[in-house]
Amino acid sequence: MSMVLASYLLCAIFLLVLLRILRRKFPVYSKPNLPPGSMGWPFLGETLQLYSHHPDSFFATRQARYGEIFKTHILGCPCVMLASPDAIRFVLVAHSSLFKPTYPPSKERLIGPSALFFHQGAYHSQIKKLVQESLSLDVIRHMVPQVDSIAVSALESWSSAGIVSTFHQMKEFTFDVAVSSIFGHLGACHKEKLKRNYFVLDRGYNCFPLNFPGSLYRKSVMAREALSNIIQDIVQQRKEETTMQKRDLLGYMLNFRGGEKGEPLTENQISDNIIGVLFAAQDTTASLLTWILKYLHDNSDVLESVRAEQAAIYRANEEGKQPLTWAQTRKMVVTNRVIMESMRMASIISFTFREAVADVEYKAIYDDQ
Ligand code: HEM
């Protein structure tokens, strides 16, 4: 009898150990306590549902049904959506080392895999430093008259255009500013080609990623290839110029030397990062400007104060005959407050992506995806 009991006990211990090993090696056996939600159809997940509804209603319905943390499967990625400040702080701040930036492959392809958003570590820091240098206070200070003249010509074109779409016009304006910050002065032909292809790329970025002839996504992929070629052309032209010491992003990238051997950036690293920065800077700033206009429209007393502040500067500059100066932008107290308050109120970036690099447990919810 004691022999039988001992064998049972040994078997039980063996099974427990085996289960533990299996759980460690193959988390699928561990029945993780995933958050509520639906993983949808095999392969497709809930991608079709996302694209057949307004994205806000797709997320709002699930948030109402499952709460602020739910699982889903979109654009080929099993994922957990987080919609509470606490959970987001957990991922982006408190436990950021458990996550890495990973975007759905269809989006990464359009921006370019070498763009800094998809990297961590030394490469990420180096590129980020170049972007920051190209936007240092000293560089921005010298850009004021240029941005001023882009704004004046945008205003003139709106006054003769009749009804305009605010967001679209803001996108055109921020595109012109971003291009001038990235490339400095650029010939009209290159600028026009960049703009045409960039807006095709932009239209397809959030569309259903079906890559067949005629689809929006395919047009975006092709526009992305064209953008790379245009950037290579601009780079080639810049290399032939006598001075490469320009203080625009392209100048900083071309002068960069990294690693022990002082390696320059490759052509793909330059074009992926230029397209990435254009993307990061242009749409966000255009959204913010659109929100500012809406808030000013809704608050006529604030609008009057901003108008009075700007009118005083306009008069001081001889009715616009003198260019706006950096010092004047520093004294726009009311205007700056409006910008800061609009950034606080408007949600410019609706969501971002992260991939767990280890098992993550959050409030007893366990995620092994
Ligand atoms: C109102 C305007 C803007 C908003 C609301 C905004 C918001 C954000 C947010 C939320 C992120 C983090 C995304 C993530 O971690 O997944 C980000 C990253 C980034 N943004 Fe902006 N942004 C704005 C303007 C700009 C501009 C003008 C530039 C111009 C260079 C820029 C360049 C970048 C870059 C390079 C990153 C990646 C940083 C990194 O990977 O460490 N952004 N932005």
Question: Care to give the gist of this entry?
Answer:
63% of the residues lie in helices and 6% in strands. The protein has 369 residues and is mainly α.
Shape-level CATH architecture of the largest domain: Orthogonal Bundle
Shape category: globular
Distance between the termini: 46 Å
**Roughly what fraction of the amino acids lie in strands?**
5-15%
The main sheet orders its strands as 1-2
**What is the C-alpha radius of gyration, as a whole number of Å?**
26 Å
Question: Which kinds of small molecule does this entry bind, naming each only once?
Answer: protoporphyrin IX containing FE
Query: Order of helices and strands, N to C?
Result: HHHEEHEHHHHHHHHHHHEEE
Task: Give the count of structural domains.
Answer: 2
CATH class of the largest domain: Mainly Alpha
Structure write-up:
By secondary structure, this protein is mostly helical. The protein folds into 2 domains: 2-104 and 357-367, no CATH class; 121-345, Cytochrome p450 (Orthogonal Bundle), CATH 1.10.630. 63% of the residues lie in helices and 6% in strands. It is built from 15 helices and 6 strands. It has a two-stranded antiparallel sheet with strand order 1-2. Strands 3-4 form a two-stranded antiparallel ribbon. Strand 1 and strand 2 (77-82) form a beta hairpin. Helix 8 runs antiparallel to helix 12 (267-298) and helix 9 packs antiparallel against helix 10 (216-240). The two termini are 46 Å apart. Protoporphyrin IX containing FE (HEM) binds at residues 101, 116-117, 128, 131, 135, 277, 280-281, 284-285, 288, 348-349, 352. Belongs to the cytochrome P450 family. One of its GO terms (biological process) is sterol metabolic process. One of its GO terms (molecular function) is iron ion binding. Keywords: Iron, Metal-binding.
